[in-house]
Amino acid sequence: MYNTRTKNPSEYQVIIAIDWADQKHDLRILKDCEEECKVISSDLLTLKNFFDTLILETVNGSIAIVIESCQSALMNLLISFTEFDIYVVHPTTASRFAKTFHLSGAKSDRADTKSLLELYLKHPDKVQKVDSSFSKGKLKRLNIKRRDLVGDRTRLTRAH
C-alpha cells in the first residue's frame, strides 16, 4: 500500500494539504510559492469537479496531496486520480506535530492544514506515499464504481 520513494516537495508544481470532515473539507493549496485556503463541500461531485479543474490548470505539472490517513469516500476519490501523488499522515503524528508548533492549543481546520503542509515540506521522510498499485486492486476499483453508481442514483432521484 505504501511506497518508500517519497519525492522532494520541490518536485511538485502544486501541493495540497487536506483536513477532511463529514460535511466539508479544508484545503491549503501551495502553488507558485503562494498559499491559498479553501473550504469545499464533501459532496463527491463537487470534489471531483474541483480536482478535474486543478488537473487541467496544472498542465504537465505534478500534484501532491497530503492528508491524514482515513478510509473514506474522499480517499477513494483521490486514489482514482492517477495525476496525484498521495501522502498520508497518521492522525496521531499530525496531532502531535500540530501541538508541538501551535502553542495556543486551539484546534482549527485551517491550522490543521497548515500543520500537514509544514510536516510534508519540512519532514517529507515522515509521511508515507500511497503506492499507485494500491489503486489498481480489483476491490478498490469495484468500490469506486459502486460509489459512482450510488452518486448517480442519488442525483437522478433528486432531479425528479
UniProtKB/TrEMBL annotation:
Any one GO biological process: DNA transposition
Domain Transposase IS110-like N-terminal: 17-158
Listed Pfam families: DEDD_Tnp_IS110
GO MF annotations, alphabetized: DNA binding; transposase activity
Descriptive protein name: ISCps4, transposase
Protein source organism: Lentisphaera araneosa HTCC2155
